[in-house]
Design a protein that fits this description.
Elements lengths: L1 H11 L4 H11 L2 H5 L14 H9 L5 H10 L3 E4 L7 H4 L7 E6 L9 E5 L6 H16 L3 E4 L5 H11 L4 E4 L10 H9 L1 E4 L10 H13 L2 E4 L7 H11 L3 E4 L7 H11 L3 E2 L3 H5 L7 H4 L41 H8 L6 E2 H8 L3 H13 L3 E4 L3 E4 L6
Parallel strand pairs: 3-4, 3-7, 4-5, 5-6, 7-8, 8-9
Antiparallel strand pairs: 1-2, 2-6, 10-12, 11-12
Helix pairs in contact: 1-5, 7-8, 7-17, 8-9, 10-11, 15-16
Length: 391
């Protein structure tokens, strides 16, 4: 913990990620830098005069308060010198000196990690594709990375969670700024990370800095929906500069949200319509990982593990036929899913078993039903109906 005080000192300073990386390169660790003789930071390549002055203050005033916040928020302080720090991030031009991690970071250097991203203003089609792709990627053993913003990114995280994770969320703020319940759920099966310590005031450039971390952790990025000019395009540019793969899901040619993916396809991104289109690119790169499992058939899901018998009466008989009132314009799959949720709530595995539908289809349809306000997502991968009757 004493060592962490110096890493938090370094992370709290109002200096660029590049300057922090230079400090680590020059001194080896934060404690050595802090205890160096006066004037040690001046005139160093990558460290401006203003940043050198910040470093020279060597102020530990708020460090203990930040450590207390880390404990209260259940955050792990992971410096770049820690053996569990991802090697893929160490390779960046300006790697984060410190990561603040909630949950358990998967072994990202050993398994495929795919960022599934897109616009906040996603269409029902985009939500369906983002959730379904993420669910299938996760079911086949890859790790899905999400920026945890509304729209496509949120759908991707939910799809990964419903397929039993793990998922990685990367924040462009400190942890306490992002209060979404989704963050807590991602941390339960995977990890949510930020390079900003608790208490750090957010700034616009943080989201650009976040992109380099998210791209650095990923083998490739899957763009589902995005306008031609958007934050998604900035992320893709960062990923391309890092040499990462780019995949794009096609949409309607006259749709604004399809303009981004279609342009990427013209520029050389691989057109994908299902998870196998993505995963086939990594079977040769991760032979030991993929040799442990067979790819899932595209229209089937893994067998659902049987649950313990439910309380008497809860699942003793199929749900009664629904009265002919309630929401209209439901597909047959959506009616079967809603009828599989009893008057209380149901686990996604039970919904899959009761409906008789493949897991991937259940996941995508649950996402659409949630958007329509017909179901709500509860803790523990459970869903409850907000509309009791279906038509």
């Amino acid at each position: 913990m004493q060592t962490n005080r110096y890493w938090i000192w370094l992370s709290q300073l109002n200096i660029s990620p590049r300057a922090r990386a230079c400090v680590v390169q020059l001194f080896g660790d934060a404690e050595t830098a802090f205890l160096s003789k006066p004037g040690s930071f001046s005139g160093r390549a990558g460290i401006s005069a203003r940043e050198a002055a910040q470093l020279e203050l060597r102020d530990l005033t708020d460090v203990d308060r930040t450590l207390a916040r880390c404990r209260a928020q259940d955050l792990t302080v992971l410096p770049i010198t820690d053996p569990s720090y991802p090697d893929c991030l160490r390779q960046l031009f300006d790697p984060p000196a410190v990561l603040f991690v909630r949950g358990t970071l998967p072994p990202v250097d050993e398994i495929p990690v795919l960022a599934v991203i897109g616009t906040r203003r996603a269409s029902p089609y985009g939500i369906k594709m983002g959730g379904e792709l993420a669910a299938r990627l996760t079911a086949d053993g890859a790790v899905v990375l999400s920026l945890l913003t509304q729209g496509i990114d949120e759908a991707a995280a939910k799809g990964a969670l419903l397929s039993h994770g793990p998922c990685i969320g990367v924040l462009g703020t400190s942890h306490e700024v992002c209060r979404l319940s989704l963050v807590r759920e991602v941390a339960q099966t995977g990890a949510v990370i930020s390079e900003y310590p608790p208490g750090r005031v957010s700034m616009r450039h943080f989201f650009r800095e976040r992109n380099r971390i998210a791209a650095g952790l990923s083998d490739g990025v899957v763009v589902v929906e995005a306008p031609e000019k958007s934050g998604t395009r900035l992320f893709v540019t960062e990923a391309v500069e890092q040499g990462k793969d780019v995949f794009a899901v096609p949409g309607n040619a006259d749709s604004e949200n399809a303009a981004g993916p279609l342009l990427l396809i013209k520029e050389g991104a691989k057109l994908v319509t299902d998870a196998e289109d993505v995963l086939e690119e990594y079977r040769g790169r991760y032979p030991l990982f993929f040799s442990k499992k067979d790819p899932l058939p595209l229209q089937e899901s893994r067998p659902v593990q049987r649950k313990q018998p439910a309380a008497p009466g809860k699942h003793a008989a199929p749900p009664p036929p629904a009265p002919p009132s309630g929401p209209v314009n439901l597909t047959d799959d959506q009616r079967r899913i809603l009828n599989a949720i009893d008057a209380y709530s149901a686990h996604v595995d039970d919904i899959t078993e009761q409906s008789g539908l493949p897991m991937a289809r259940v996941l995508s349809q649950l996402t659409i039903l949630e958007i329509r306000g017909l179901v709500r997502h509860e803790a523990g991968k459970r869903f409850a109906r907000t509309e009791i009757h279906t038509k």
